[in-house]
Fold this sequence. Notes:
Elements: H1 15-18, E1 28-33, H2 37-47, E2 53-59, H3 62-72, E3 76-79, H4 89-97, E4 105-110, H5 115-124, E5 128-131, H6 136-147, E6 152-153, H7 155-166, H8 174-184, H9 189-196, H10 200-214, H11 219-228
Parallel strand pairs: 1-2, 1-3, 3-4, 4-5, 5-6
Helix pairs in contact: 3-4, 4-5, 8-10, 8-11, 9-10, 10-11
Domain HTH luxR-type: 165-230
Protein name: DNA-binding response regulator, NarL/FixJ family, contains REC and HTH domains
Domain Response regulatory: 29-147
Amino acid sequence: MSAIPSPSSGPAPSADAAASPLPPVSAIRLLLCDDHAVVRAGLRALLASTDGIEVVGEAGSGEEALAMADRLRPDVVLMDLQLGEGMDGVTATRRLVSGDPPAPRVLVLTMFDTDADITRAIEAGATGYLLKAERPEELFAAIRNAASGRTALSAPVADRVLARMRSPRPALSERERDILRHLARGVGNREIARTLFISEATVKTHLGRIYGKLGVETRAGAVAVATERRLLP
């Protein structure tokens, strides 16, 4: 009977080959955009304390972020919304994500958590929205999620998004919308009445209904809520 060949025929792998390390995973390339140098320095120092994230540049304005992103090709841009004079963070986000591929992911990091700010940033193409009060671990996780294309939202921001989805917009009549548009321009009751060919008493009646539907008590409050809920053109 012939011998059965061994299944492990051939030279055995050397110990050096078996123990060779896996190729290193490349770090996430991150660009910081904030108009405060102290904030950027703090973020850079914080991010240096974790593995897998490399800060490749710092921008102090939206315009600078666009130029640096084009040159440095980061994976993620950590973007503030308020950038002083010039281009704001929402406009910079829109420009970044619509640029030549591969476009970076944009993760908003801001102090502002109003519905209007959140909506504008997400509609501009931001992958995530984080508040500056977050713990470092949450920031690190959000950057990694953003680099992978996953949505990253602070818990308070996620709560606001869900609450807004669950509560429909107040149903304003066309006349109430007309009056609200005039309020946003700072027009008084008498001028509104004259423009719309109605009496001042009718304007006041409509204002009372608008306040009730928006849950406010003042003209300024009505304009603020209407802007936040995108009820104005």
